[in-house]
């Protein structure tokens, strides 16, 4: 957008039989098993699944923030062995710095990366205007609503124009209406209208919400819990650009239902293999620990 | 938030005025003798220029209080930062600091006198010793109570440790440090006065001690009033600093 940031190559993610085992006081806990997935450049892929299926962990493994215990991870053809430096991360909480203005929060990555803020000020303003925060650049986070704070944190993730965006339930804490609006807004920021292979970023998006995954994604990866593994992958062939009307379409309903069934099935297959997963099918999940 | 509305000051002012009025009335109505309990008006009179060279004593005590406060603040922040910076430092320092904190510091005052002699410095150090510990703890807590996500952000951008410290951890600790400094402000006053009690040739604590022999209670009260004015000024200064450095933190002033 501005000349200040250099062009970077587009990312693609390759995961081959990735596994993750935590060592805990009660013995090893397998969080992820045999995750194999390829994400094309410019593709929008969502990971859906119940809590505890390891989808957030998988996101951090891709970012190089946590080491996997087995398997191979590559981004842009290069193995991930340390935190990736040219990615954007958005978390469930906006995690803005309370003492900084919105503008200075968005400029944080440039400072942390040692690039200086001078060359990025204009881009930060441009991003903030794009998400409707143009009049709020001088405000502090507590003066903003939750949705506005999350918009600011998305701008922060986009500042250095990373080719890969990793988003961990970014809209999970927002009310349903704001969330629906943010979905469409994210697609606009992503550059949905530009078409694949254009300037689009690769996005790996974690969510609980099936409708959210369907409206956003090119593909939805359905994960099952304990250990987290891929139960199904659904291609979302809904036409783009997607709008509020897309949600009302028959195809949207069909795809949502298919993913819903895949999720249930994932839990089911998991339940037959691992006794601890029975809780996810039963009506009283709170008692799960007592059965173990 | 900045500046207190006159309306909010009214109840407090009325309490003070009522207290002083009752005191004055009780003393004059009951005929309490001056050396037992002087009236507020005679205390006020004793606070003015006259037999006691107030300027000199106020200056001495003020320097001690400020010195004690600054030493405690600096040492506290540095030690807290060391503890937050490295696990090794935390393991090495924390038990010792806890031990030091359990000592009755007022009882150490005579030792300081033996080691350092008369003067301003030992009194500063006593005040600093009483007041530094909360600063250490709050600094360490403020520097480490950071969302993991925020630290991940630092990792993603390959930020060096000092930069995360300077840009994320340190500002996060400001409200914690400043609320500890409010406690330290009072401790510095206690330390300075205790030091003067033990041995000194000047200062408001020294004035109070000398009135014991002269039975000049009004002067003792006058010195007390000056001490509390100094304490209030330091407390107000910390409050102002807090609003300046950490305006985002809704710290309510007690």
Task: Output the keywords.
heterodimer, A: 292 residues, alpha/beta, 6-stranded mixed sheet, 4-stranded antiparallel sheet, disordered C terminus, B: 254 residues, mainly alpha, MetI-like fold, 10 helices, 81% helix, 0% strand
Cα gyration radius of chain A (Å): 19 Å
Count of DSSP-assigned helices of chain A: 9
CATH topology title of chain B: MetI-like fold
Rg of chain B (CA only): 22 Å
Question: Distance between termini of chain B?
Answer: 14 Å
Strand numbers in spatial order across the main sheet of chain A? 6-7-8-3-9-10
Number of domains of chain B: 1
The strand count of chain B comes to 0
Beta-strand portion of chain A reads: 15-25%
Alpha-beta classification of chain A: alpha/beta
> Which band does the percent of strand residues of chain B land in?
under 5%
Helix content of chain B: over 70%
* Topology order of chain B in helix (H) and strand (E) letters: HHHHHHHHHH
